[in-house]
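Exercise: predict the structure of this protein bound to zinc ion.
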Amino acid sequence: MAFEDNQQLTRIFEEIADFLELQGENIFKVKAYQKAARGLEGLERSVTELYRSGALVSMPGFGKALVEKVGQFVDTGHVELHLQLKSSFPPEILHLMDVPGLGAKKAALLYKELGIGSVDGLEKALREGLVTDIKGFGKKTVDKLLEGIGLLRQGEQRWLLGRVSLLADELLGRLRALPVVQRAEAAGSLRRGKETVGDLDLLVISSAPEQVMEFFAGLGEVIGSGPTKTSIRWEGTFQIDLRCVPAESFGAAMQYFTGSMDHNVALRGRAKRMSCELNEYGLFDALGQCLASETEEEIYAKLGLPWIAPELRESGAELEWENQPERLELSQLQGNLHTHSLWSDGTDTLEQLAEEAQKRGYKYLAVTDHSRSMVVANGLSIERLLAQGEEIARLNRGFGDFRLLWGSEVDILGDGSLDFPEDILARLDFVVAAVHSQFSMSPEAMTERICRGISHPYVDVLAHPTGRKINRRVGYQADWERVYAVAREHGVALEINCSPRRLDLNDKAARRARDCGCLISLGTDAHSLPEFDYLPLGVLQARRAGIEAASLLNSLSWEQLRKRRPHLADV
Ligand SMILES: [Zn+2]
Ligand SMILES: [Zn+2]
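Solution:
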């Protein structure tokens, strides 16, 4: 449930954090605003109400200064510091900070030296060689920034799966609420679970198409409109197409508009070889007789195929597979294997995490807070880690079947050693290891580093293996075949990090890792309760990789997970 005041204030706090960073303020001050913003995002009550009732002061992360800012917002709709900061910079400068690889320090320098305050301005300056006199802007940096601008523009055209999927849920909900709508579904690359989506395709069965079109046209800027199809632009950039289709050809339309293009070409080719024609209205024989149209299942069956799950409709090669993989279901997952609590940079207490996990039907939740080198993420010292372990043991005594797993997201340091000593890691229930620093190592050095990292005993998972952030950062380079081989040898699972910004490993890499004999682990990397919603995105990615429950670490019960660490005492 989203509250408008929470959303507004979240945005204000995020912007304050960005402005402060631009000013070169202390990073902990910046983080405090970012953390407060994340906390607000996940609130299940209105912040105005919380402030008025005096309950805000007892919320973690809201010190006196922040509560005062909330007070200003509640009273006036503004935060003074925000207005002040905003007026001292050009209006587009925050967008400039979205350029991957730029960062606040460089952005501040460019603004100070050349007055650059927008992405277009930066691109012009880079191309015209205006930045070369500034320290730190050599050719390599310039090339990287131009690549970053490309990524940013690409991100404006292709939105992240998580974002589109929320938007689709909202729009479908509103369409289904119309009395004249009998059915509404999303097709296209969203339905196929692609990590980014170029435009959204919605299909509707309705007894009064013109009413649906009129309603839909009122939701955004109209690009085109007809009696059964309307296209709108959302937030100035993103195209959404809505089509009304007859009930009797709904399956054919879903098939057609789900794609992929290559899959459909292959399918139409198959129909043709059978002297049939397949289009958005159905499958027809040589005499024009309709053979199937109402459901996708019938169409695939008439073509001599099993129904192919949307996530697998990609190159067309899937038509020739002897067996389709068994489709992974969210309910087959027993738990979530990567989360953060208030102990490091998450926003919620262990109790809150456990409660949320149980609400969602998980049998266990691995709490994997950051290790001591991640100072900016409030990484745990050994003392704090041990104290957290006691707290988790205490909580576990109060649960029935449910278990919190005492874990860590331990840094793989530059030389491949781990951020906690072995005797400490040995005591934990679950360990995910990850690279968080020195991304630009040579591929050889990065391969050695990762392989050494996952060769330590007690590592269960290599988290976000490539370090990519979609539309923001290409991953680091390494010899992945070698990494998979070492992971397999040591029984280390490769993660599909379910965060929509990461989805790392991607579908192709996850398939390859599985084919190399590695287990796959799904973790949301949630830093707040709403981010538990990322798990289905990881399931989609796993389906695209053809991964079945048997290849997932999450299919194991917590007792089975524990048996992987036989040195631990029974509980
Ligand atoms: Zn991480
Ligand atoms: Zn993490």
